[in-house]
């Protein structure tokens, strides 16, 4: 009798009572139970598993809002699931608010942070990455109001940037994604797909000889008509001196002397300019 009396009067460490089958079970009640079990990891693990199972469809719907933006749907769901675990840990059921109101902003924020930190094609300063959304909204609002896209100076004025910063800002915020060089950009005359890589120019091997060609053209212009014709036929036409002699109406020996004299004069001019 005394033992039963002590059991009835001992309220220092009340043991959580199992929920009656008739009581409704929702996320808030399960989260309240999670707080009550305290350090009982086995009970806490079971409760967390039930909460995760209950809200997984909610997280999946929120994560799929961000699909088709360069990130696999399964990866988005994983990020959303991690956000749900953080929400379960941080939610305070004593405030009386609904868990879903706390969960959705947490999931959305984690997914946006994932895009911001891991999905940019090139490194961009964080403050410019954060303003990408603001730029998109400004351009959309401007087009709606003015029926045209804003100029670079108008964008700079809106974001308080000088002209050089504005150009860098616009280029940086467009660097979120990069197209593959294998992406088709159209078709050729035969109907075959042409990859984006075909539009990338290659190094022109003649670039380094531009200055020399201009100097040569100038030097040739200073020769007499006969000398210039002999040099051009010899070095550009690759004709023999005998054939050149037929064009100039002189002997092969005279052609040799004409070319030699022309080359010496051109060499002297190049030497003087250097």
TrEMBL record:
<feature type="region of interest" description="Disordered">
    <location>
        <begin position="180"/>
        <end position="203"/>
    </location>
</feature>
<protein>
    <submittedName>
        <fullName>Sigma-70 family RNA polymerase sigma factor</fullName>
    </submittedName>
</protein>
<keyword id="KW-0804">Transcription</keyword>
<dbReference type="Pfam" id="PF04545">
    <property type="entry name" value="Sigma70_r4"/>
</dbReference>
<dbReference type="InterPro" id="IPR013324">
    <property type="entry name" value="RNA_pol_sigma_r3/r4-like"/>
</dbReference>
<keyword id="KW-0731">Sigma factor</keyword>
<feature type="region of interest" description="Disordered">
    <location>
        <begin position="1"/>
        <end position="26"/>
    </location>
</feature>
<dbReference type="InterPro" id="IPR007630">
    <property type="entry name" value="RNA_pol_sigma70_r4"/>
</dbReference>
<dbReference type="InterPro" id="IPR014284">
    <property type="entry name" value="RNA_pol_sigma-70_dom"/>
</dbReference>
<dbReference type="InterPro" id="IPR007627">
    <property type="entry name" value="RNA_pol_sigma70_r2"/>
</dbReference>
<keyword id="KW-0238">DNA-binding</keyword>
<feature type="compositionally biased region" description="Basic and acidic residues">
    <location>
        <begin position="1"/>
        <end position="11"/>
    </location>
</feature>
<keyword id="KW-0805">Transcription regulation</keyword>
<dbReference type="InterPro" id="IPR013325">
    <property type="entry name" value="RNA_pol_sigma_r2"/>
</dbReference>
<dbReference type="InterPro" id="IPR036388">
    <property type="entry name" value="WH-like_DNA-bd_sf"/>
</dbReference>
<feature type="domain" description="RNA polymerase sigma-70 region 2">
    <location>
        <begin position="52"/>
        <end position="120"/>
    </location>
</feature>
<dbReference type="Pfam" id="PF04542">
    <property type="entry name" value="Sigma70_r2"/>
</dbReference>
<feature type="domain" description="RNA polymerase sigma-70 region 4">
    <location>
        <begin position="219"/>
        <end position="266"/>
    </location>
</feature>
């Amino acid at each position: 009798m005394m033992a039963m009396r002590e059991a009835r009067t001992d309220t220092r460490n009340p043991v959580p009572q199992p929920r009656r089958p008739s009581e409704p079970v929702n996320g808030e009640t399960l989260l309240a139970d999670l707080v009550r079990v305290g350090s009982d990891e086995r009970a806490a693990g079971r409760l967390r598993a039930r909460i995760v199972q209950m809200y997984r469809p909610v997280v999946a719907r929120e994560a799929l809002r961000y699909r088709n933006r360069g990130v696999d749907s399964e990866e988005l769901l994983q990020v959303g699931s991690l956000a749900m675990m953080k929400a379960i840990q941080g939610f305070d059921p004593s405030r009386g608010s609904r868990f879903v109101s706390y969960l959705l902003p947490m999931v959305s924020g984690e997914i946006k942070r994932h895009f911001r930190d891991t999905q940019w094609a090139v490194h961009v300063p964080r403050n410019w990455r954060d303003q990408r959304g603001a730029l998109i909204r400004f351009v959309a609002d401007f087009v709606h109001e003015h029926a045209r896209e804003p100029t670079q100076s108008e964008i700079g004025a809106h974001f308080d940037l000088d002209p050089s910063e504005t150009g860098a800002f616009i280029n940086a915020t467009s660097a979120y994604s990069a197209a593959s060089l294998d992406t088709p950009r159209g078709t050729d005359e035969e109907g075959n797909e042409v990859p984006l890589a075909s539009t990338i120019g290659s190094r022109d091997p003649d670039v380094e000889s531009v200055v020399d060609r201009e100097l040569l053209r100038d030097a040739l212009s200073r020769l007499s008509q006969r000398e210039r014709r002999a040099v051009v036929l010899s070095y550009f036409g690759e004709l023999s001196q005998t054939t050149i002699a037929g064009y100039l109406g002189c002997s092969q020996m005279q052609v040799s002397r004409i070319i030699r004299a022309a080359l010496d004069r051109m060499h002297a001019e190049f030497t003087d300019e250097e």
